[in-house]
């Protein structure tokens, strides 16, 4: 399995950096799209070029609000985050999805289409954190 992990994120820089630095500390390479060279590519071309990863972590932070017509707006993830969640789900990479809640954010609304996914709920100071993510694969010699 690749040691590269694609991090899909919205506008919560703290959540993105916390997860990325944690993943790097435990031996993974965090792939954050805006840190990759553009090389004249569109965003979706960059996603495709960088999607050779072991898995994706999708941070569904409540950066936007949305509602059904006439409804009450509720926190939701940015639409680019939902698009990239769909991209990785539709490909061979099965994403680990983190719904961040607690001091810095609240749980965003999520479409019923995703209810069948397994979620990691990371709460500030709570029992679930980025430590819930899988560790790097070990070879038979016990090294990466």
Helix content: 10-25%
Compressed to H and E, one letter per element, the order equals EHEHEEEHEE
How much β-strand is present in the residues? 15-25%
Give, in spatial order, the strands making up the sheet with the most strands.
2-1-3-6-7
Sheet with most strands: 5 strands, parallel
Overall pLDDT = 73
Amino-to-carboxy terminus distance: 10 Å
Structural class: alpha/beta
Could you tell me the radius of gyration in angstroms? 16 Å
Approximate shape: globular
**Contiguous helical run count:** 3
Structure write-up:
The protein is α/β, with parallel strands linked by helices and about 140 residues long. It has helices spanning about 15-25, 45-50, 80-90, and strands spanning about 5-10, 30, 55-60, 65, 75, 95-100, 120-125. The strands form two sheets. Strands 2-1-3-6-7 form a five-stranded parallel sheet. A two-stranded antiparallel sheet has the order 4-5. A hairpin with a 7-residue loop joins strand 4 and strand 5. The longest helix has 13 residues, at about 15-25.
């Amino acid at each position: 399995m690749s040691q590269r992990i694609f991090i899909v994120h919205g506008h919560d820089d703290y959540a993105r950096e916390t997860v990325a630095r944690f993943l790097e500390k435990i031996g993974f390479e965090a792939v954050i799209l805006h840190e990759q060279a553009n090389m004249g590519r569109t965003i979706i071309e960059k996603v495709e070029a960088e999607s050779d990863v072991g898995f994706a972590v999708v941070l569904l932070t409540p950066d936007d609000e949305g509602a059904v017509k006439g409804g009450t707006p509720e926190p939701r993830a940015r639409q680019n985050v939902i698009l990239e969640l769909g991209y990785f789900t539709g490909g061979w990479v099965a994403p680990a999805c983190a719904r961040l809640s607690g001091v810095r954010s609240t749980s965003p609304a999520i479409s019923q289409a995703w209810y069948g996914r397994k979620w990691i709920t990371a709460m500030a100071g709570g029992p679930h954190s980025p430590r819930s993510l899988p560790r790097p694969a070990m070879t038979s010699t016990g090294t990466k």
